[in-house]
Amino acid sequence: MFATVQKLHFPASSLPQNYLARKPERDSFRLSFPLSKRDAEDMWSRSVWRLLLPESSGGRQVSTPRGRFSRALRRDFFTTTTKEEYDTRRVDITPLEQRKLTFDTHALVRDLETHGFDKAQAKTIVSVLTTLSNVSLDTIYKEMVTQAQQKMKTELEQVKQQLINETSQIRADNKLDINLERSRVTDMFTDQEKKLMEATTEFTKKDTQTNSIISETSNKIDTEIASLKTLMESNKLETIRYLAASVFTCLAIALGFYRLWKQQ
């Protein structure tokens, strides 16, 4: 939270006309420290109102309505403008006794003395205004952030945005890589499936050819065996025929020799 404090002064046009010619009665003030912001504002309002009362009031206690001060007078006493922009946190600030004032107290005392106030009243008003200013500044300083914190917050926002962008980019790249890898694996699986189908078809074809060759060979073997059996049977009959002819021939020769031997 940022705040701006304007210079405090009492313009002559803001004071009532009957105070320029006479001095108000002196009132005694006892200040207690430290004061809260509300207590300081109430004390400042009562003190200034008592000092600005006419002498005909006789020192009687009069209420201090806030609406009777002119707008210019209220604005010249103290004006702050706040603007919520960042998260607030408490920070260490300079103590009240070591803090620099935001206005010239001596010039303000002389200005009050010039417009009809005595020295004690002027010092009292300046003291009240100083206390109120310090309390208000203390509250403002506790709620405002430093330039380093603002810079750090800006850098953190930039780093956060950069991380978000990088994360989105990495996620998009990973998603693209995954899709490409999935497409590549799908294509590879399709190619392998195609090759497997081709190999299966070729194996089936080879198996059919092999079975056909085996069947043909078996048929040839069976045919050859049948032919050999037929040849063997024919050879067997011829052999038996030759043997029978040989036996009969031998018997005929033997009978011929026996007949010749017998005739001799």
UniProtKB/TrEMBL annotation:
Gene3D superfamilies, A to Z: 1.20.5.340
Keywords: Coiled coil, Membrane, Mitochondrion, Transmembrane, Transmembrane helix
Domain of life per record: Eukaryota
Coiled coil feature spans: 142-169
Transmembrane segment boundaries: 242-261
Pfam families (alphabetical): CCDC90-like (PF07798)
Record localization: Membrane; Mitochondrion
One annotated Gene Ontology cellular component of this protein: mitochondrion
Primary localisation category: membrane
Family stated for the protein in its record: Belongs to the CCDC90 family.
PANTHER family with a match to the protein in the record: COILED-COIL DOMAIN-CONTAINING PROTEIN 90B, MITOCHONDRIAL, PROTEIN FMP32, MITOCHONDRIAL
Name of the protein in its database record: Coiled-coil domain-containing protein 90B, mitochondrial isoform X5
Natural source organism: Phyllostomus discolor
Source lineage: Eukaryota, Metazoa, Chordata, Craniata, Vertebrata
Gene responsible for this protein: CCDC90B
